[in-house]
Amino acid sequence: MTFQDEFPIGFTMSLAQHTDVLTQFASLSPEEQQRIVDGSRQMKSRREMQNYVENMFQG
Predict the structure, then answer these.
(1) Can you give the residue range of the structural domain that contains 9?
(2) Contact 16, 22 (CB under 8 A)
(3) What is the pLDDT of residues 21-36, one digit of tens each?
(4) If you placed Cys at 49, which of 10, 23, 34, 57 could pair as Cys (CB 3.0 to 4.6 Å)?
(5) Is the dihedral angle over the CA atoms 23, 56, 36, 29 positive or is it negative?
(6) Angle 16-29-5 (CA atoms, 0-180°, nearest 5)?
(7) Cα distances (angstroms) measured from residue 19 to each of 2, 26, 42, 54, 57
(8) How many other CB atoms sit within 10 Å of the CB of residue 57?
(9) Domain total for the chain?
C-alpha cells in the first residue's frame, strides 16, 4: 500500500501546514491514527479538511 492509499492527500497537506498537530498525530497509536484518517475521508472540501485538522485535538 502506498502513502497516498493510506492517507487522503488533503489530509497530509493540511498536516504538513500544522506541524504541532502533525507531532500530536504521530504520537497516537495506530488505531487512533486510523480513526482520525477515517474521519478525514468524510471531508468534502479543502476548507472542511483544514478545519478538521486544525480542530482534531480540540476538546
Answers:
(1) 3-55
(2) yes
(3) 999 999 999 999 999 9
(4) 10
(5) positive
(6) 55
(7) 22, 10, 22, 11, 13
(8) 13
(9) 1
Extract the C-alpha cell encoding 52. Answer: 478538521
Q: What is the pTM of this model?
A: 0.83
- Spatial separation of the C-alpha atoms in residues 1 and 17, rounded to whole Å: 24
Which residue do the cell numbers 502513502 mark? 3
Of 3, 34, 43, 44, residue with least CA distance to 52: 43
Are 21 and 57 a contacting pair, CB within 8 Å? yes
pLDDT at position 1: 41
